[in-house]
């Protein structure tokens, strides 16, 4: 993986050049590639002005939690973790026992990209996978898997996990969420929402956060900050406050209780004030919409799913993709249902989008 000398005693220089991204070029592999937005950086700078109590007993952590309560317009318990995998895994572990099961889409992040963390932290809770167009779970699919068996030999369904926005860049509508809440309550399922890109979903829905979370039955939301302009940090929000009992111990045991918690929570203050979190998401979504429109004009390009958030999933000639890589563009082809994923972030510019689209047109035209 790394260019390391075979003999470490030799006086040689390790070459890391292939790991360094071109600072002059935006990349579309992931919104994780983007740096820290100015508002989050400023909040961290202010939090760094002097000493503060450790382990979350600081003004920044209390203020961030209160701002989240104001945003969702409800009393809720708030915890901060380093990353989305830990947030999802610990939240799910708090929602069920080891003999339970979690219903989720077959392409959900908790299934495809978390290395078994949900099962590990819940001591073996089984993920029950369902299919659905464009990355979405349907009430019919939930009902089918829950009623498949009810004997003691089968893991008892306990949680419905939804990804908003989905792994294919689509967004659950309010009506879809209401229908899923109805089936969840019918079968006594708790609802977990993986909101790594929840901000992008809200930018599309243009609804108050409460309308698409606790008012439609979401018990726990893992609200992503990292992909929206922060260095690290996700907020685990328990609308069902009973589920948060002793959750702090889970965080500590899992290595998610930051000793200098203010560096996780202060950026949230910077992001929540003046709706920076929403402005960042709206910008990323607009860039993705611009890219989608540009690629739709290129012969041979087809789309895997609707463009509803900050990503574009496109299928094109493999030779075009190889040509893009030769020109230095980075993107993923292993996420979703095939094709290439192009992800926009708060720092993506229209010029970045236009440059990528121009290269796609040029290469596709040359190969035609």
Concise structural overview:
By secondary structure, the protein is of the alpha/beta class. Helices cover 38% and strands 14% of the residues. The chain is built from 13 helices and ten strands.
Which descriptors would you attach to this protein?
seven-stranded mixed sheet; 10 strands; 368 residues; alpha/beta; three-stranded antiparallel sheet; 2 domains; 38% helix; Aspartate Aminotransferase, domain 1; 13 helices; Aspartate Aminotransferase, domain 2
Number of domains: 2
- What characterizes the major β-sheet? 7 strands, mixed
The number of distinct β-strands equals: 10
> What characteristic shape results from the CA principal axes?
globular
The secondary-structure element order is HHEHEHHEHEHEHEEHHHEEHEH
The CATH class of the largest domain is identified as Alpha Beta
Helix count equals 13
Strand order of the largest sheet: 1-7-6-5-4-2-3
Poorly predicted sequence stretches spanning 5 or more consecutive residues: none
Task: Tell me the name of the CATH homologous superfamily of the largest domain.
Answer: Type I PLP-dependent aspartate aminotransferase-like (Major domain)
Radius of gyration: 21 Å
CATH architecture of the largest domain: 3-Layer(aba) Sandwich
| Helix residue percentage | 25-40%
What percent strand? 5-15%
| CA-CA gap between termini | 36 Å
Class inferred from helices and paired strands: alpha/beta
Q: CATH topology of the largest domain, what is it called?
A: Aspartate Aminotransferase, domain 2
Overall pLDDT: 93
């Amino acid at each position: 993986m790394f260019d390391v000398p075979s003999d470490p005693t030799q006086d040689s220089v390790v070459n890391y050049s292939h790991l360094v991204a071109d600072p002059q070029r935006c990349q579309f592999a992931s919104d994780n590639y983007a740096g820290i937005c100015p508002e989050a950086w400023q909040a961290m700078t202010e939090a760094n002005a002097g000493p503060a109590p450790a382990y979350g007993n600081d003004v920044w952590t209390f203020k961030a939690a209160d701002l989240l309560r104001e945003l969702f317009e409800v009393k809720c318990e708030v915890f901060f973790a380093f990353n989305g995998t830990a947030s999802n895994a610990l939240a799910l572990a708090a929602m069920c026992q080891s003999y339970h099961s979690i219903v989720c889409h077959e392409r959900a992040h908790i299934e495809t990209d978390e290395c078994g963390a949900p099962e590990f932290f819940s001591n073996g809770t089984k993920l029950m996978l369902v299919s659905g167009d464009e990355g979405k779970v349907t009430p019919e699919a939930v009902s089918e898997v829950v009623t498949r068996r009810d004997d003691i030999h089968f893991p008892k369904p306990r949680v419905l996990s939804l990804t908003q926005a989905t792994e294919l860049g689509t967004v659950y509508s309010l009506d879809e969420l209401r229908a899923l809440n109805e089936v969840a309550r019918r079968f006594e399922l708790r609802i977990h929402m993986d909101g790594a890109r929840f901000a992008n979903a809200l930018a599309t829905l243009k609804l108050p956060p409460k309308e698409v979370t606790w008012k439609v039955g979401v018990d726990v939301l893992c609200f992503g900050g990292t992909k929206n302009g922060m260095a690290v940090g996700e907020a685990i929000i328990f609308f069902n406050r009973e589920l948060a009992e002793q959750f702090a111990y889970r965080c500590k045991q899992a290595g998610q209780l930051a000793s200098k918690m203010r560096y996780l929570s202060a950026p949230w203050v910077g992001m929540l004030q003046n709706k920076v979190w929403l402005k960042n998401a709206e910008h990323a979504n607009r860039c993705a919409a611009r890219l989608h429109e540009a690629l739709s004009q290129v012969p041979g390009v087809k789309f895997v799913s609707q463009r509803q958030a900050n990503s574009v999933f496109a299928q094109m000639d493999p030779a075009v993709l190889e040509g893009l890589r030769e020109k230095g563009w980075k993107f993923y082809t292993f996420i979703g249902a095939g094709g290439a994923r192009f992800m926009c972030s708060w720092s993506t510019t229209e010029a970045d989008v236009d440059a990528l689209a121009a290269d796609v047109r040029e290469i596709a035209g040359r190969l035609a």
